[in-house]
Amino acid sequence: MEGRILIIDDEQEYCISLKKLLVAHDINCDYYLDPVSAIDKIQQCSYSLLISDLKMPGMSGIDLLQRIREIQPALPIIMVSGYASTDSVVEAMQCGALNFYEKPVPFQKLLAEIKKIIEKQGLANTIDRTEVNGVGTIITVNDRMKHLIHIARKAATTDAPVIVTGKSGTGKELFTSIIHECSHRKDGPFIKMNCAAIPETLLESELFGYDKGAFTDAKKDQKGKFEIADGGTLFFDEIGDMSLQTQAKLLRILQEGEFERLGSHQTRKVNVRFVAATNQNLQEKIQAGSFREDLFFRLSVIQIEIPSLSERPDDIIPLSRYYLDTFNHKYHKQIQGFSEDVMNVLLLHTWPGNVRELKNCIERSVIFCENDLITCDDIPPHYHNGKECIENDSPPLQSFYDSVSREMILNALDKVQGSRTKAAELLNISRKTLYLRMKKLGISI
């Protein structure tokens, strides 16, 4: 059975921060800023736990608690507040609240209580696990990533060209493999062409093949990637590194499905599905004149942009646990998990190398770990800046809160050209509250 938690709080930054940390512990969440909308959702969906603020505009936490008791009498409810009085806490408990926490919430205690409730109800959480034969596995709890997997599978039902973009290490090849494996071409070849790894002087012969005598070392006829991929999928990795001359020839094949080998005048037809990937900004390369705009539009019938790991921190812990299992098996170890301080480090690191960097970090940690848990002694020192890991019993909720708050304020200010009054209206907070938060977060305009 699948479990889910509902968070109701009028502070959006707090909701997002708490959700990210809970999801990082494999606990799925929804959140609402408006209690009335939350009540409508509760009537439609089944939740295993409700976490609600005590003081909210429009409806107090007590009124909300009483209303929910009418709808779902057995639903466990935990109340939180930064401004609670003794009387309000007592009233909440009398109305059926399971527990009460004062903000800032002691996350470890809250997490332990949540896990007990979920275990008691026999509820589990869903992690999307997409196996890609011979390539790897996509592990995600992130809604955006799940949507992209859905798009990839949908794209696979057509022969339309697809371009996958994203920073190095995000998993672009995994997505191109999904497109091939879910298509009617899955029994045909899947041919990868790394445009950055092959010298430009050899790229054309690799792609188009050549006839005997086409050049000095052409001792016999040789098929190129296009012919080899006939009936299957041809994957152009790092297509942004392809020369303009080769781009022009590729465009012809995309348009007409035909080409000539080097040294030959015979036109050959191929039935190939094209997918491409790049970590570069092709729009910028088009503006700079180093990538053909017509080729870009031909390739980008369907675009899939994979977010960096820093944009989906809820995947960090599930991925870490997956790689821990993988390398436990590879190195014949039985490491049980990660210490809380390592969890802090994993969540706080920016992961410029994305999933590939995380995978390497976990592999190194498994190799060096001699105990039941991976500790800071096992991970590379630069992940905690050469300092001792933070020894406390609380993951970085405040850090998440500040990070999310800063991002939301900067985005709001950008949308209204720096107007604090309009930004406050957009964020649904007072101008004074906005000023205090900007001062606390060091934001100046």
Question: Which properties best describe this structure?
Answer:
five-stranded parallel beta sheet, 18 helices, 15% strand, Rossmann fold, 445 residues, 4 domains, alpha/beta, Helicase, Ruva Protein, domain 3
Outline of the structure:
By secondary structure, this protein is α/β, with parallel strands linked by helices.
Question: Your description of this structure?
Answer:
With 445 residues, this protein is an alpha/beta fold. The chain is built from 18 helices and 16 strands. It has a five-stranded parallel sheet with strand order 2-1-3-4-5, sandwiched between helices. A five-stranded parallel sheet has the order 9-10-13-8-14. Strands 6-7 form a two-stranded antiparallel sheet. Strand 11 (258-260) and strand 12 (267-269) form a beta hairpin. The relative contact order is 0.10.
Overall CATH class of the largest domain: Alpha Beta
What Rg, in angstroms, do the CA atoms define? 27 Å
Sheet with most strands: 5 strands, parallel
> How confident is the prediction overall: mean pLDDT?
85
Distance between the termini: 49 Å
β-strand percent reads 5-15%
Main sheet strand line-up:
2-1-3-4-5
Label the overall shape.
elongated
Class per helix and strand makeup: alpha/beta
Say how many strands there are. 16
| Helix percentage range | 40-55%
What is the CATH topology assignment of the largest domain? Rossmann fold
Instruction: Count the DSSP helices.
Output: 18
- The CATH architecture name of the largest domain reads 3-Layer(aba) Sandwich
| Oligomeric form | single chain
Number of discrete domains: 4
